[in-house]
Amino acid sequence: MNQRNATLDDANRRLQDRLMHVSRLAAVGEMAAGVAHELNQPLAAVANYAQACERLLGLPDPDLEEIRDALRQITAQAVRAGDIISRLRGLTRPRDSLGELTDVNALIRELADLIESDARVHESTCRFELTEGLNPLTLDRAQIQQVVFALVRNALEALDECPLGVPREVVIATTRAADGDVLIEVRDSGPGISPDIAQRLFDPFCTTKAAGTGLGLASSRTIARSYGGTLEHRPNLPSGACFVLRLPSPARR
Ligand SMILES: Nc1ncnc2c1ncn2[C@@H]1O[C@H](COP(=O)(O)OP(=O)(O)OP(=O)(O)O)[C@@H](O)[C@H]1O
Ligand SMILES: [Mg+2]
Question: Which atom of ligand 1 is nearest to the CA of 186?
Fold first, then answer.
């Protein structure tokens, strides 16, 4: 009987390995299709603008201002393609350094000026609710700041959708979970996650924005997981979205 169970366990494990392999391949395929699609746009634009420059330069009296405009577009599109590639790298190579012992509240306070000025641009207010007495964590601080900033950016971009007169607020809060983990929450009073994409929110290239890459949440989740943590979403009450980054306490890592 025991031998039969062991054989079944073996078979199950092999099946699981095969399924994992297939799902990884499917993920790679999906990813490659997404990258191809995303890069195609800026590359096609670069080719078009370059052709336009060549045509303009062939005219007897070329309009230099028009050519300069086309060259600026080429630069902008090349920068966009580069940005997509560098953010993709964040998905596969999440950690450069081992990190240092960090006070999460201090890391957020360092960002406060930047967040406040960004909030002003989006005609929104931001509030910090930082709980003292959090466990210090070994982190790459720039990387966690990048995640917080990506979440705040999303919140402010969502608040842009609010009709005038509706309060536009982002709250950045830290708390200590019962098991000692550190929670960083970013809540907004915007329209909340569109039901169309709720299931795919963390998938690379999932975006509802004309100029979005859809890599912000995907790379933020990769970073969270590289610390043994999580990044989840829940609706905020009475309206809006709330993203929770959970970073495990040293005792649990
Ligand atoms: N706070 C939020 N409120 C409402 N929708 C949100 C919020 N945060 C994210 N989303 C939705 O999730 C999608 C994916 O977000 P993500 O940050 O991954 O990409 P993006 O913001 O579209 O692009 P990028 O981060 O490159 O600018 C967004 O396009 C938006 O539809
Ligand atoms: Mg984003």
Answer: 1
